Amino acid sequence: MYNFIFWVLYKANINDGNFTAKFQATIIVLFALYIHLVFVWLIVQSLFVQMFTSFNLDYLKSKETQVVIIALSAFLIYKYYNANRIQRIVNKYSENESYDVLDKLKVGLLIFIPLISIILILGNQPK
User: Is-contact 14 21, C-beta < 8 A?
Assistant: First the structure.
């Protein structure tokens, strides 16, 4: 799924240059990964409420900690998509599918449906 997201965004931005296309696709993959992890966390937390009452993540609320985590994650994802991996992804999806608006719509749905669900879940939680 994340390789598909990477491919769609890489193909959309390849005319801007290889570095720009790779960087922009990496940032969106990071955003999608973050959204999916938060979505899964909220689902698990809502299913097992009593297990998470003593689980404290207050140290993650520090802006410095968040910046370090995001920067490190972006760097690792950027390094994960090396030239060989990008070539394999491009070859894989270029053979099976043609790049069109439906691919962009799929990526949008993969990101925004969990995002909207997160907003709805958090909006219904007691404060």
Answer: yes
The pair of structure tokens assigned to 24 is 């922009």
User: Residue 50 gets which letter from DSSP?
Assistant: G
8 Å CB contact between 1 and 110: yes
Q: pLDDT value at position 100?
A: 76
Q: Cβ distance 46 to 121 under 8 Å?
A: yes
* pLDDT tens digits along 53-63: 666 666 667 78
Task: Give, in order, the Cα–Cα distances in Å from 38 to each of 32, 115, 123.
Answer: 10, 9, 14
Kindly report the CA angle at 87 between 27 and 72, in degrees rounded to 5? 30
- Cβ–Cβ < 8 Å for 26, 82: no
Q: Please give the Cα distance from 2 to 32 (Å, whole number).
A: 8
Average pLDDT rounded to a whole number, residues 21-31: 92
Side-chain half-sphere of 18: how many Cα atoms within 13 Å? 6
